[in-house]
Specification:
- This protein is α+β, with helices and mostly antiparallel strands and 655 residues long.
- It folds into five domains: 2-78, OB fold (Dihydrolipoamide Acetyltransferase, E2P) (Beta Barrel), CATH 2.40.50.690; 83-152, OB fold (Dihydrolipoamide Acetyltransferase, E2P) (Beta Barrel); 174-422 and 476-560, no CATH class; 423-475; 570-651, Nucleic acid-binding proteins (OB fold (Dihydrolipoamide Acetyltransferase, E2P)), CATH 2.40.50.140.
- It has 14 helices and 31 strands.
- The chain has a seven-stranded mixed sheet with strand order 11-18-17-14-13-12-19. It has a five-stranded antiparallel sheet with strand order 3-2-1-4-5, with no helix packed on it. It has a five-stranded mixed beta barrel with strand order 6-7-8-10-9.
- Helix 2 packs antiparallel against helix 14, helix 8 (332-351) crosses helix 9 and helix 10 runs antiparallel to helix 12 (464-474).
- The longest helix has 34 residues, at 533-566.
Length: 655
């Protein structure tokens, strides 16, 4: 009896549960708590499991070579996904009523068979498919198409399939739209308690295609050495009350998403593009930071509070840049004075240790059918920097106002901060190793100054984009938190996000908290009531999470536009910079397009190249020529894969 129990107990020890990670080749690994290494699952032992599923496995201790601990999947406890987005491939060889959906994003390692007995389905349609069964005798799961987005590669199909994949709502419910319309029709106001600034010269500066104007600036000279400057931010929190249907929807979205040619707004357009937007020649409610500044850029006194403004003019960045360059045009004195102050603010910030990283942005022009017809690389100009500096200052000063008492001691008041931790040392070390063969160095003892020196040295160099991307990757991700650790990149100890409440929910939280601290001693029944810190920390974490999703979405869509645009240059030769290596390929940043393509190592004809052990270079077996990260090479564009968003290049003999 005892020996029987021992056998059972021993047998039970071989059974475990864990999440499965299936490779593109079909074999898999299962992570099990308590095991130093993941359990290897051979291709024929995955038992219809899909990537990310929670599975029950049995250990078969060692494989035939006696090295790895192998296992086999006995049961799928819980599927991670049952719905997938893929491309429908019709079988034209036969009169079969079945098609295949191919999923390209590594979320599933097998194709899905679907019934296509309906004329609405077309070859190369992008579709949402749901797995309905997977009989043991069939190698592939059976699915049902539940949504058609359109032909793969088409603008709308790519946007809506991406939004579906990331679980983003692109339409507002009727209830939310109706609530927005009610607010718009009532135009709730409290002008009696607001500072009236409608008689002061005020203007907005935004991109040419902007629809939602969050911020406006005002300036007036008080005497020979003092100016009053106002930064006016749309008072979104006045209209959107916490707990309302609109508030819940805004929180759920947490951020607007900006695609090329399309915006998925956080708020309905009735509010984002109209009521809350600081349109010219209209009375608008705002939350303002007003301060006096002397000619040395010193802030003499400050005021925060609710205001009513009237923007006199809507400027684009291009218009303001012309005014700065030529010193003439509408409000040229005010704009040029603000520009001079912005230069002082930049100088102070850099002296304080702020990292000065200005990424070049790829901008596309689309035709009426939303096809990319041209691109240009946009750098920040003086007009951009003018706005940026005053927004940074406002976010910093509001955070300081809440966080510090008059004697500069911490107030310990609850607030939402934009925090940025120190960079990961290993990533900085990796950056150092890569840039040294290119003739650049980093000083770990004075890292920020060293990074700023590096950024100056690489300006205009072919390797600039690659090194800037490596610096960005080495940095920690900025996030929201109630626990303040400061902002490493900006060298601000107190910093928040306050200046974009139309497109960021984090800023609405900051508005509510600032208003609470400004009015908490007033006897007002409708006053905002402070919650526990856990409430705001949860909101902070959620806003950070949604921000990362929005960034990923925008990058993925940009890649689609880049690949679609570059397709017209098939057969052409370009220069690029080597940005990465794997065992079988070289990644190259095409300088003209600022986008990455790939050359297979086996396709390089000048020699047989292998990856060096340091992973930073490749070496030819015969000629022993070495290529490093950052080297400039010539390539030919030979193919484009729209489904995988891949650019395939051929290596021109780089002697």
């Amino acid at each position: 009896m005892k020996s029987e129990k021992k056998i059972k107990k021993k047998h039970c020890k071989n059974f475990f549960t864990g999440f499965i990670n299936i490779t593109n080749h079909g074999y898999a690994f299962v992570n099990i708590e308590g095991f130093k290494k993941d359990i290897f699952i051979p291709k024929n032992k995955t038992n219809r499991a899909l990537n990310g599923d929670l599975v029950k496995i049995r250990l078969n201790r060692k494989n035939s070579k006696g090295i790895k601990i192998e296992g086999e999947v006995l049961k799928i406890i819980k599927r991670k996904n049952k719905k997938f987005i893929g491309i429908l491939k019709m079988n034209f060889q036969s009169h079969s009523k079945y098609g295949t959906v191919i999923v390209y994003n590594n979320s599933i390692h097998v194709d899905i068979f679907v019934s296509i007995d309906n004329e609405k389905y077309h070859h190369n349609d992008k579709v949402l498919v749901q797995i309905i069964s997977w009989p043991k005798e069939i190698k592939n799961p059976l699915g049902k198409i539940i949504k058609i987005f359109g032909k793969t590669g088409e603008y709308k199909a790519e946007i809506y399939s991406l939004l579906e994949e990331y679980g983003i709502h692109y339409e507002f419910s009727k209830e939310v739209e109706n609530e927005a319309k009610k607010i718009f029709s009532k135009r709730i106001s409290d002008t009696e308690i607001r500072k009236d600034l409608r008689n002061i010269n005020t203007f907005t500066i935004d991109p040419l295609d902007a629809k939602d104007f969050d911020d406006a600036l005002s300036i007036r000279k008080l005497n020979d050495d003092t100016w009053e400057i106002g930064v006016h931010i749309s008072d979104v929190s006045h209209y959107i009350k916490e707990g309302s249907l609109l508030d819940k929807e805004a929180y759920s979205r947490a951020t607007s998403i900006y695609f090329i040619g399309e915006v998925i707004p956080m708020l309905p357009k009735t509010l984002s593009n109209d009521l809350c937007s600081l349109q010219p020649m209209e009375d608008k409610l705002s939350f303002s930071y007003i301060f006096n500044m002397d000619s040395q850029g010193k802030i003499l006194k400050s005021w925060f509070g609710k205001t009513i403004i009237r923007s006199d003019r809507r400027f684009t960045y291009e218009e303001v840049q012309k005014i700065i360059d030529k010193k003439k045009g509408d409000f040229h004195e005010e704009i040029y004075t603000l520009f001079l102050f912005s230069k002082i603010l930049t100088k102070k910030r850099l002296k304080n240790g702020s990292i000065y990283l200005e990424k070049v942005e790829v901008k596309f022009n689309l035709d009426k059918k939303n096809n990319p017809i041209s691109l240009h690389l946009e750098k920040n100009n003086d007009a951009h920097r003018l706005i940026e500096e005053f927004m940074l200052l406002t976010n910093q000063k509001i955070s300081e106002f809440v966080s510090l008492n008059f004697n500069e001691n911490p107030s310990n008041k609850l607030f939402i901060y934009r925090v940025h931790d120190k960079p990961d040392f290993q990533k900085i070390f990796f950056l150092k190793k890569i840039i040294e063969p290119l003739g650049y160095f980093l000083n770990f003892k004075n890292l920020k100054t060293s990074i700023n020196c590096l950024l100056k040295k690489i300006k205009g160099r072919p390797e600039q984009n690659m090194i800037e991307n490596l610096i960005l990757r080495a940095m920690s991700k900025a996030k929201y938190s109630t626990k303040n650790i400061g902002h490493y990149g900006l060298s601000f100890f107190y910093y928040t996000h306050f200046t974009s409440p139309i497109r960021r929910y984090s800023d609405i939280i900051a508005h509510r908290l600032l208003h609470y601290y400004l009015t908490k001693n007033h006897n007002n029944e409708n006053a905002y009531k402070l919650k526990k810190i856990e409430f705001y920390e949860k909101q902070s974490q959620y806003c950070s999470y949604k921000e990362r999703i929005a960034i990923d979405l925008e990058r993925e869509f940009l890649k689609y536009i880049q690949v679609k645009y570059i397709k017209k240059f098939l057969g052409k030769e370009f220069y690029g910079i080597i940005t990465g290596f794997t065992d079988w390929s070289v990644y190259i940043d095409l300088l003209l397009f600022q986008t990455e393509g790939m050359v297979r190592l086996c396709d390089i004809k000048e020699d047989s190249y292998i990856l060096n052990s340091n992973n930073y270079s490749i070496i030819g077996k015969k000629k022993r020529k070495v290529y490093h990260l950052g080297d400039k090479v010539k390539v030919k564009l030979i193919d484009v894969n729209m489904e995988k968003k891949q650019i395939i290049l051929d290596w021109i003999d780089n002697k």
